[in-house]
Write a structure and sequence with these properties.
alpha/beta; seven-stranded parallel beta sheet; 9 helices; 7 strands; about 45% helix; globular; oxidoreductase
Length: about 240
Amino acid sequence: MASLSLAGRTALVTGASGGIGGAISRELAQRGAHVVLTGRNQARLASLQQQLYQPSNHRISQCDLTCTSSVNALVKSLDSIDILVNAAGVSRDSLAMRQREDELDEMMQINLRSAMKLCKQVSPMMVRKRSGCIINVSSVVGIHGNVGQSGYAATKAGLIGFTRSLAKELGPRGVRANVIAPGFIDTEMTRNILQQPATKSLIDRIPLQHLGTVDDVAHATAFIAEAKYMTGQVLIIDGGLF
């Protein structure tokens, strides 16, 4: 049974066609939120919508996160946004001295700039109501770094700094901003990373002795959405690794 603790709220989730974004969408819908799904894979979004609690309450909205006009159009198409979850992300792993410029640009655009654009467009809507919750999905790699992920780490670290600053700016206006920082979560994106020898050695040091699941991240996201006195925080979901 759904608890419906988020009933009446509209949640915009980017990266909803990915493992973490999809799980977050399911959890928020289960708690009664109306979820707007955006992502690259429209077929997956359509399938996800049918999996959500009361599918007709939710909708798919196409958006090119690298395009400012597309982001603006998405926000303008919504009457209200109570919860913004920036879960879109890509990783193009390479040693810093070998990182291609196009790979670095893609990570900057998707992991950092798209979140900043959406926060900029959504914030005034939330400020007018003196209510709202922004949740940006970063990574423990953005805090501790990792071999072969310097570019990815830079974008995720930037997202943390941006969110903490945003929390200070928007807090007096009733809007909260927090970060989820997952560790090693079993997703399609991380499976390639997990094959690297340096990463395998880290997994052996996880105190809970296993990878996290997308549902672990989704539950944490829902907790933040409901935690009305929590802002400017980084909630780490890593099984105790760091």
